[in-house]
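Design a sequence for this backbone.
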């Protein structure tokens, strides 16, 4: 493989709509050279393209056109206020999973009547916040949660609109750690047990059971499991209606995968939409989908600088200033992320295998093993592709490394949308108790 093949950004970073492209030998986000952002903000830094996110949203919206569907962006994928705002401005609602995410979505301007609240373990306080905010729907995942929500809603004098999340026992065929719809997962209520739970819901004060919800997993590259699960949900809706329940909503969850590796191809959204139409399209229900990764994943990169190239025993290491605390996916899921040189290599440049690692003191801090790349030099900039989803949100301050900052690009403009904390800010919530402070 030549460098030209390995580093064709439009190919590696998903497809032709990637906002990351080489121009004049430099990798750009929209019209902004990534090197300019690195100079202005420092590295490591996440860089997102608002236009890329909007394009991803529009692609899904166009595919689903004609259906009564609300696209609720799964905020957990990237919950930066500016990102939520950009998607809300494009028309997205929100799927939130905590009190914090409810507040983020509201603050970013997502209308409550386009916001659904999922989560397998909601606290009473979070349920109260959701009801108070007038969220459009609460996706309940257990009989006990239903009872708690009933008490909350009655105490607030309202009827809470509820969808019950069912577990259809369909294998999404994804990484074990992100499959959610098979028996034995903690999520939802077994689909066979659902009718009894709906009967209980209908009898409870303060509860309006209006919908069925399902989410079978994340990063699905094969659409067939969606068809199987949605067909089961449609059958359940018909059954519940035959029992006299007024079910008029279906939440189809998220999970559409993106190509991380050049051998993978993007999900066929027209086919996904056809599956939706064919399975649940004739039920007259208001539909919801909850994509996260699809909207923000391909629209972000993690930009990092090479600290040193170290020649080890039979291996060469590229040591970066980014680490597993900044981008956890490789350590956690053995995930592959494309690594692109910010300065475009010459077409004939030779490729060599490198282990790409961070400075954190554990072997898990490895981004890629024996990755074929053009030999980088100390100080070079590299960009991890498809890092706009489940990147910054999963970052931590492990090794007392500051949370990685985030930059949003839109056309020729860019802005820091989360700044890098100072050391003082990092320790501001900590305290040395008086009996220790007095020791000297
Ligand atoms: N709805 C529910 C109920 C979910 O649990 C999730 C993701 C989504 C929607 C959005 O799924 P998406 O469209 O993004 O696949 N940290 C992992 C992914 C965890 C996904 C958790 N739930 C990763 O980095 O791959």
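Sequence:
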């Amino acid at each position: 493989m030549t460098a030209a093949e390995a580093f064709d950004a439009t190919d590696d970073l998903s497809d032709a709509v990637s906002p990351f492209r080489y121009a004049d030998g430099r990798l750009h986000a929209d019209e902004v050279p990534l090197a300019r952002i690195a100079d202005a903000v420092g590295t490591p830094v996440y860089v997102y393209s608002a236009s890329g996110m909007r394009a991803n949203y529009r692609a899904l919206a166009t595919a689903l056109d004609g259906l009564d569907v609300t696209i609720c962006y799964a905020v957990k994928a990237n919950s930066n206020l500016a990102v939520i705002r950009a998607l809300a401005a494009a028309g997205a609602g929100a799927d939130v999973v905590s009190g914090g995410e409810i507040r983020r979505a509201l603050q970013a301007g997502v209308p409550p009547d386009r916001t659904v609240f999922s989560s397998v373990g909601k606290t009473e306080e979070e349920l109260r916040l959701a009801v108070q905010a007038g969220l459009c729907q609460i996706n309940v995942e257990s009989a006990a949660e239903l009872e708690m929500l009933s008490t909350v809603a009655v105490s607030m004098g309202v009827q809470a609109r509820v969808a019950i999340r069912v577990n259809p026992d369909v294998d999404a065929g994804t990484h074990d750690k992100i499959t959610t719809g098979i028996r034995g997962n903690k999520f939802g209520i077994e689909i066979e047990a659902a009718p009894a739970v709906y009967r209980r819901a209908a009898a409870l004060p303060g509860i309006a059971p209006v919908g069925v919800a399902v989410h079978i997993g994340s990063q699905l590259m094969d659409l067939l499991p969606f068809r199987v699960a949605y067909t089961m949900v449609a059958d359940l809706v018909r059954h519940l209606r035959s029992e006299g329940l007024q079910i008029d909503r279906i939440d189809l969850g998220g999970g559409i995968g993106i190509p991380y590796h050049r051998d993978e191809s993007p999900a066929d959204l027209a086919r996904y939409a056809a599956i939706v139409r064919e399975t649940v399209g004739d039920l007259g229900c208001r539909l919801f989908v909850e994509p996260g990764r699809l909207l923000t994943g391909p629209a972000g990169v993690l930009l990092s600088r090479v600290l040193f190239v170290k020649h080890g025993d039979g291996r060469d290491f590229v040591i970066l200033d980014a680490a597993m605390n900044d981008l956890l996916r490789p350590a956690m899921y053995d995930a592959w992320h494309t690594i692109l040189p910010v300065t475009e290599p010459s077409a004939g440049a030779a490729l060599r295998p490198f282990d790409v690692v961070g400075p954190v003191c554990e072997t898990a801090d490895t981004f890629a093993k024996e990755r074929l790349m053009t030999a980088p030099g100390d100080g070079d900039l590299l960009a991890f592709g498809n890092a706009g989803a489940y990147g910054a949100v999963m970052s931590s301050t492990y090794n007392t490394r500051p949370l990685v900052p985030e930059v949003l690009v839109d056309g020729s403009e860019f802005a820091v949308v989360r700044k890098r904390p100072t050391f003082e800010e990092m320790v501001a919530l900590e305290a040395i108790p008086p009996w220790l402070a007095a020791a000297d």
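Residues 59 and 411 are 19 Å apart (CA to CA).
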